[in-house]
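A reminder before we start the practical. When you read a complex entry, don't treat the lines as separate problems. The point of joint prediction is that each chain is placed relative to the others, so the output describes one connected object in space. Small molecules and nucleic acid strands, if listed, are placed in the same frame. In the example below there are two entries. Take a minute to note the order of the lines before looking further.
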Amino acid sequence: MKPITASLTALFAFAILSLEGSDRFITLSNLPMGTKEEPLVLRTYFPDPGLGREVMANHDLGFRARKYSPGKGDVDGFVDPIRGIPGAIGVNFGSELSICWDTTECRLLYAWQGGFLDMTQYWGKPESGRRKGFDYVPSLVGELIYLARGSHPVGIFDHYTEAPKPVFTGYRIVEGVPEFSCQIGKATIRVRIEPGEKPLEIVKKYTIEGAKEFGYFESGYKFKEEKTGPDTFTITLQGKPVSSEGAADEDPDYSTDNPNAGWGEALYTNLGCFACHSKDGTRGHGPSFAGLFGAERTITGFDRPVTADESYIEESIVNPMAKVVDTYPAGYMPPYPIDKKQIKSLTLFIKTLADE
Amino acid sequence: MKFPNIFLIVAVALAPAIYSSEPYTIETIPFPEGVPPEVGAIGFTPSGDLAVALRRSDLIVATPTQDPTKFEWRLFASGLHNACGMNIVSDDEIIVSQMAELTRLVDTDKDGSADLYESLASPWGMSGNYHETNHLVPDGKGGYFVAIGTASHNGPVFYNVKGDYSKVGRRGRNFAAATWKGWVLHIDQEGETTPWASGFRMHNGILLDSKGNLWSGDNQGDWKAATPFYHVEQGNFYGHVSSLVWDPDWDSAIDPLDLPLEKINAMKTPPAIQLPHAEMNRSASEPVEIPEGDVFGPYGGQILLPDNNGERLTRLMLEEVDGIYQGACAQFWEGNGLRLGNNRIVFSPDKTTLYVGQTSRGWGQIAEGLQRISFSGNDPFDVKTMTLTKTGFRLEFTDMLPEDAASSEHFKFTRHRYEDTGNYGGDKLDESEIGTTEVRLVDDRTIEIDLEKLEDSGWVYEMKMDGFSSAKGQGLRTGLFYYTVNRLKP
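Here is the predicted structure of the whole assembly.
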């Protein structure tokens, strides 16, 4: 779904905000980033790119609720939950690696490359400084290279009953990198996660205390395990572009009564459209959505321009090869087999960006 | 953008009849260039540095300077998710309540910034709704009281919820879909959690006063007709029904939103003070006790309650009547260079200056930053305390009164009451004028006023006062007061 290229690195380089010779404060910029030498830790709401229930096993499930009107109270219709992760911590090492580590599951949920987070949805536009919109979950900038699957990768084999819930106990900054700490039963697990030496590598340095027998297993990813001491080991995980098949089998139910732009915006994040189609006019692998709707498009192999109306956008989602915009590569985007309401919602969302 | 360094306040020129800010001055303190000044929490370290937790991530500190533009800010901690409560333990250790947990920040290597972020406790849930912020106050025994705010219908919840999710708690305007929303929790030194009190909507600020009483404001809205100020006691329910779903003794078959109003009214503890929304305080935030003595003017021991949606700080005069707390409110500060968005306040270590942190956080108009209000040392002429008598009210003034002050033409009373419902806010009900039967000078600083009608059970008495100065000719600083009569003097 999202092939890796080096050009993205350059694309996001502008977002580095370090102030020369002074502390690095978070500023009005909605694209905060760290560097490999000085990683940036940020606790916020995180997008959920398709984590399965087996990964989010210690979370409860939100449920659809009746719509509420401030004037009338309960009204017809429903509000569905949205995808998001409430209590995770992000770490950005520059364009090479970003990670999302969760304090409820006490594990790495996903990793990506390119940029870090676009906080606009949560922090608001700099001019107004306000939370914006109904869905205030930040969006990922870059491309997913790891998405957790299966149960917790660290197995503690001291107990043969069901493993107790992990309890997050905090983190310590060691040489600039947070070392997360959690308790599973009597065992203490500490882990530092950093970029590896090779492209797409993620290095996890573990210390496990209070457990006699433990092991590591990662579902769906190649990894190398190196014992570094009696209580310590290092996992070098080989990341890879996360295909749509890598996402959860048990997707939460997104069905709503009517297609709407808000839903489309959620899909824009969750389906990964953002990786190639910007919202602000920045050129990516695919054309930006900014100012797209209603514009005249020059199509490779067509004599005359085509207007980007509803049918054009719907066709481009279902059959991206039908009309490829001039100067963009053909065959880059896979077809997205999503239902009509989702297509309609995405189209409505793209429509909202017509004036950008 | 440039702010004038000092707004010198000239009472006669600027102030409306009911209010004057003299003899205080206000200054604006800038943050580093480009840093959004969205203040979640403020406090002083033992060595006198001011620490400010900002919404997006950072906790910054600076040594206050006389020139408000010369603060040199440095980073103590970062990566925090909307920390709205802060307790400074030492120069190297700060406890914050962020969205997900109570976190201990420690600078173990003494290089000026925290390297240990220890999770102390995380008993509450997170639905994913942006509105669920928390505030804390130390219990004086190594533990904390934490106020757990509810969610807003203006935002959704997530599929993945931290803690437990309640479908029933999700209903309504402000809702308690995740564990312990709408509660005050007590977390002891060992990290053990005790649910303390329920029924809160958005108690954005709690206080443990010097006598050991726990207080909190709350925000006008559903189940809060006006802006209430509560004396928070263990086991009590304060009216916002959604929180009840997390009461371990609650019958899960009952949707609290379906309870009859009489039943809810019988269950709930009324506020010690009702602050009329328009006139006094639209959005109560962090209450703080004014230092004892005269160091910040004549109001020592009273409580200041900032308005997060008004250019004002409200002064609360509490007293114990028939075993419960009740009292009066009046404006301490209104307008005169103070921004909207007043969220957190703290007194400087020498107690002469009040620092005010502001944020708009997605509601109201943009209003954010840091200001400070300093006392000149010259007392204003004002009502120091308004207390209840068996027949009316007693006003103690800060200075000597002229003989002719004790005249009924200077005092106009009305009264009204409120009814909390599931709808947003509430009007003043049964409002009527109340005549005075006698106004007398008790001594050279005290006036007593007898009223035609004085009743309890939540009547709010409005007093408007004007038409006289002090014996020395100093004008009255404040002229509008509201006293909430929960109980009559036995």
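Discuss with your neighbour: The first strand of chain A starts at residue 40 and ends at 43. What might explain this?
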